[in-house]
Amino acid sequence: MGTPPELARYEQRFRRAGLPLFIEDFSPAHDIFSRATPLLALVFILEMLGATSLEWPLWQNLLAALAGLAFLIGGFGVLNRLRGRPFWSFPTRFGIAELAVFVLLPALLPLASEGQVRQFLGVALGNLLLVGLIYAVVGYGLIGTTFWGLHRLGAELASSVASLVRALPLLLVFSLVLFVNTEMWQVFAGMPVAFIVFFALAFALLSDLFLMLRLPKELDRIEQDAGSGPPLRRIQRLNLSISLVVRQWMQVLVVSTGVGLFFVGFGVLAISRHIYDQWGVSPGAWSYEFDLLGHPLLISAALVKVAVGIANFTGLYYSISLMTDATYRTEFLDNVTAELRDLFTARKEYLDLRARLLPADSPRP
Questions:
Q1: Is 68 exposed, middle or buried (0-12, 13-18, 19+ CB in 10 A)?
Q2: Which of 10, 104, 223, 365 could bond 350 through an S-S bridge, CB–CB 3.0 to 4.6 Å?
Q3: Is there a contact between 51 and 65 (Cβ–Cβ < 8 Å)?
Q4: The dihedral sign for the CA sequence 314, 150, 8, 135
Q5: Using one digit for the tens of pLDDT, what is the confidence trace for 8-60?
Q6: 17, 12, 5, 6: which is closest to 342 by C-alpha?
Q7: Which of 92-120 are b and which e, b meaning 16 or more Cβ less than 10 Å from the residue's Cβ?
Q8: Is 29:158 a contact under the CB 8 Å cutoff?
Q9: Please, what is the Cα angle at 132 between 107 and 254, to 5 degrees?
């Protein structure tokens, strides 16, 4: 017996909004890993190559790969029989036994073929990380949240650009002082690209940490103002928090990108090669010089690095302002509240409908 169509429509709506944990009895065995069965099956089969070796001839590797494939399929078939399923069937649910076979069985192939303990640990750890990634992405609705965000990209861009316009005067005062600072150029121009990427990720994590510390209080207010029905469970609040973090990322990304592009353009017009020489700054790995209205202009790797660095600082400042500045916080959370009001109302209707259609003591179909 499947899920009643009336309930399925509500559950599909929650998934599309990136809130799958609003679904009652949402289960990793039924709802997460079963949806990832094609990916898990593909990875599981490809890992038959763990039985091969670069030192063996082609015919021997082919035989080893076939033997590895038979071992993997046979191992899962034995588990199917122990679980009371047909030997050749795909599991309809993934419990601890199925996940343990997926993680450990392919890792035994390099151990059996060449005694490679390190490769055994590497394959097992890689499979375990894949299981954890699938749990996080599917279980907390990151795919649904991303598609929901892309679907609303126009509205998000409009909101972010409006916020950028309002924040621009203060941001420019903050950022221009940094941009024309000699030490800022000397620091970022000589910094490896990997370090700049690292700082961008560190600033993103720092802003997310600040947001997560502030969200519980804000979520209480949102639930009181916009919610209906029973209070959210802790795991549902976490799902909602992640959805709000992704939404904040989109706004901060737009604002940071806008600021970065502004300073690339401003730097091309204002920072000439003569200034590079005076500041003792190298243009970097690449540079391109051209004329505009008889004035020599220069775009360089150093300029892009400095613009990205300032965009990182600006993004951190703006993300904190979303939670601390009254104007930004009201706009950001009011928009969220208006959208969540409909979802909370739908959740109450879903729970009422579920109580009527399903007996109180019956498990989810």
A1: buried
A2: 10
A3: yes
A4: negative
A5: 888 888 887 777 878 887 766 566 777 778 888 888 888 888 878 878 888 88
A6: 17
A7: eebeeebbebbbebbbbbbbbbbebeebb
A8: no
A9: 130
